[in-house]
Design a protein that fits this description.
Layout (H helix, E strand, L loop, with lengths): L1 E2 L8 E4 L2 E11 L7 E8 L5 E7 L3 E4 L2 E11 L4 E4 L6 E4 L16 E7 L2 E6 L3 E9 L12 E6 L4 E5 L7 E5 L5 E4 L1
Antiparallel strand pairs: 1-6, 2-3, 2-6, 3-4, 4-5, 7-8, 7-10, 8-9, 10-11, 12-13, 12-15, 13-14, 15-16
Length: 185
């Protein structure tokens, strides 16, 4: 048990018996009243956010967290398989956990995975990834009005808008926060 004043951004705590990640927190006091901690929490099972207040005397339960660097190997009907490069153990992450991030998974790339109480709960993507272009239509000659773009498909199945000069087989950099083109790799 810890005091509510011990809450820090980035920690994981149990709120309503479900692990929640602390997205934001502020200590507040109002006049002669006792202080409180206002926090924004993200449910690690559903991904929904909520705002709540804890009194400065309230007790909370902090969860044990661990971050491991794991190499993505492949996906099957069980889930996504990651290999621990140090111990060569296979860690399986359920498909439901990575539904929004699956288009950024590339075999052989190392990702940071956060574990709470020994169970994987969150995959932390790098800010940018290099991806190979697998499908690209030809840009039309003379079709170069200001900033003309075309859709391409990467090796993971992600569709990205790129300039007309990008061809099949090239490697491009993609921003993982919004899926935008950053440049050639």
């Amino acid at each position: 048990m810890a005091s509510a004043t011990d809450i820090r951004k980035g920690q994981v705590l149990l709120y309503q018996n479900v692990p929640h990640w602390v997205v934001d927190m502020q200590h507040r006091t109002q006049g002669r009243q006792s202080g409180f901690v206002q926090v924004t929490l993200r449910n690690l099972h559903t991904g929904s956010s909520t705002k709540t207040k804890f009194g400065s005397n309230d007790n909370i339960t902090l969860c044990f967290t661990e971050s491991k660097d794991l190499e993505y190997a492949y996906a099957d009907n069980i889930g996504y398989h990651f290999l621990n490069p140090n111990t060569f153990e296979d860690e399986i992450i359920p498909s439901s956990l990575l539904e929004d991030q699956k288009l950024y998974l590339i075999a052989g790339i190392i990702y940071a995975v956060m574990f709470v109480e020994g169970k994987p709960v969150q995959l932390q993507l790098p800010t940018a990834l290099s991806m190979k272009v697998t499908e690209a239509s030809e840009g039309l000659r003379g079709d170069t009005a200001s900033n003309a773009q075309k859709p391409i498909v990467t090796e993971s199945g992600l569709t990205v808008q790129v300039p007309l000069f990008i061809k099949r087989g090239e490697v491009i950099r993609v921003n993982t926060s919004d899926g935008s083109y950053l440049g050639r790799a």
